[in-house]
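Researcher: Let's try something more involved. This one mixes different molecule types, so please make sure each is placed in the same coordinate frame as the others.
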Amino acid sequence: MRRMTARPANTHQARLLRLLRDGGPRSRAELGDRVDLSRSKLAVEVDRLLETGLVVADGLAASRGGRRSHNIRLAPRLRFLGVDIGATSIDVAVTNPELEILGHLNQPMDVREGPVAVFDQVLAMVGKLRETGVAEAFDGAGIGVPGPVRFPEGVPVAPPIMPGWDGFPVREALSQELGCPVMVDNDVNLMAMGEMQAGVARSVQDFFCVKIGTGIGCGIVAGGEVHRGTTGSAGDVGHIQVEPDGRQCACGNRGCLEAYFGGAALARDAEEAAGEGRSAELARRLAAEGRLTAADVAVAASAGDGTSLDLIRDGGSRVGQVIAGLVSFFNPGLVVIGGGVTGLGHTLLASIRTQVYRQSLPLATGNLPIVLGELGQVAGVTGAARLTSDHLFSPA
Amino acid sequence: MRRMTARPANTHQARLLRLLRDGGPRSRAELGDRVDLSRSKLAVEVDRLLETGLVVADGLAASRGGRRSHNIRLAPRLRFLGVDIGATSIDVAVTNPELEILGHLNQPMDVREGPVAVFDQVLAMVGKLRETGVAEAFDGAGIGVPGPVRFPEGVPVAPPIMPGWDGFPVREALSQELGCPVMVDNDVNLMAMGEMQAGVARSVQDFFCVKIGTGIGCGIVAGGEVHRGTTGSAGDVGHIQVEPDGRQCACGNRGCLEAYFGGAALARDAEEAAGEGRSAELARRLAAEGRLTAADVAVAASAGDGTSLDLIRDGGSRVGQVIAGLVSFFNPGLVVIGGGVTGLGHTLLASIRTQVYRQSLPLATGNLPIVLGELGQVAGVTGAARLTSDHLFSPA
DNA sequence: CGGCTTTGTCCTCGTACTGGAAAAAGTCGC
DNA sequence: GCGACTTTTTCCAGTACGAGGACAAAGCCG
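Model: All components are placed in one shared frame. Result:
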């Protein structure tokens, strides 16, 4: 089961591996065009990579006018595992070396059931994926948790919504079970990396990624690198105050953004609206299911329910208010909105945009796209795989 | 006048130069302890630096138990010029190669008089400093302007408080006049670099620096590097909204932080309080001088004037509210408060702290110092010199 | 089938770096 | 003051590495 994947011996090899990951198979000649190495040097490094088995030759490339070149690709047997533990569900996916998803499972699960139960579930899902034949063992795994993480150690710290996880040795435990290196990060950081790898943020150096799920978090990328902050809690925007002396929030403060919007707040507001008879649509759904979720509001809104639309617009406006401030502060080149409530789609996006463009200065917003994430549910697992491969494809 | 200062030929040399800058003169042996180079290699690189004249031998070092080593120091003739153009005043300083200030001038001047007038003033001040004999020519100059800057080109862009400066080729013009390389940056970024070089932020990797002068800005340092944003307007926190539908701000929006606090707002509030008879102290000062400034409020407050204290506390609370949000977002290891109004001192600091510690989550604030800048008026010019030397001490 | 282009390999040359040895310059104890 | 020990510096040879040219191999095109 345990499999020691080779690591590149130097930065040149690391560079080549990442090129092959992000650009797919290439000929040696094309590689030569991209890196600043002499032909001999390039040949040597490629040969060494072939020896370690990290890359393989893969037939002949199309001719560029002369002799045909041999194609080089990352060893197709490489497999990365991405795990995304959300507040209320778990995503697990397996990728090929190019970080394309070969198999993906999603299962509802409350993170509050604690690390042991969640791990059992994750391992069961991994087993299921293995059975489908997409992977036997893994060369690396990345896992995202919905709270702050001490990144170098791979351990969650003081997670507000994850009782029992504080200090749990996630990296250590998962590494034991899987027999491969494991990286642990905050789920929003992984979402940002995912969108940077394969989504809307390709080749953007400075952006942030607001994830609106049960709670609200934000992955920050500065200069192409994820910014995690001093204690790993950067991006915790859900508890920024939007209303002095406002609603009580679970964190103990008042007026936090999360007290007004996010999956939990939205569900509660919807139930209240249904109870007060402000929306026949929501009331019917409440009666049918016993409770309401953000998804119900989304469906009701697309069916034209005014109250639901108002809820989304109000929430988007609150989020937009916070984002506007952060845009002034950070001056990103892109803002990505993602997470579970993207089902609310363009209504939400429109009200966020309105608020941001109204409140921030022209220089910062003039050319600032605010868009929905492209990857949806697989953003997190893609980012997890990316994080892992970045680690594996760097000199030991 | 023009003087072509040599540049290091490789990263090793650059590394050595920065070590000598930040740690002062050292022996070759001590340098060897810090860098990971063989003795022979080190000797070669030091010799080359000696040849170029960037460093000089400087007597014998104290013995460490055996043969005494020759000291090496940066060429003492090196001079850096730092210029800090504020909204209402200009600072100019000359530093030695270790970035210690040899001469410093400050002169009131309204930046709105335009780039030509300001440049005349700056050059006159530089001339005066030259006359004192601290420098003949300069090896590099850094200049800070109170608005966003397109950093690579060294050109201000769309500066709200600096009409006439948009697109003015600051780098080009100053470089012509001084005959040396010039770097241009936002004044708050320079303040952050200054505190990182010689102030409270030494060896802090992630922090930000809130400058409360006429307006309010914020220098951001992530991973030891200044974050300037996509269009160079990062840190523009003065126009973050603190009060929906609040006071009209000069920028056209409502409820901006700057509409409530900062030198300009504070002066206006003080005059209003004096006019309405809410403070005898302020009224007396208004009568004596015809107008009030933030400094008057500071003096009145330290004399025990309740209204002035209230003004400061209210303002600090507003600033704290914004900082609290940014702390949650960015999770810095330190927050520095600086700028003209630091005369308000600990009253201001206390109310900022109260607000931040109350509003942000424990993980982010648990070990978060919020302190006044150490360098006061010379933070900007020190940062300017640092920026310049960083550029000069990097491979060409 | 013969020129032309591209690709891959081989080989040599110059250079940069390492690590040991020894010389130079001190310190310290007796 | 002298010898043993340290530290610094220089010198030197051995080595590894990379650049770049030459040439062979492979393929396109007329």
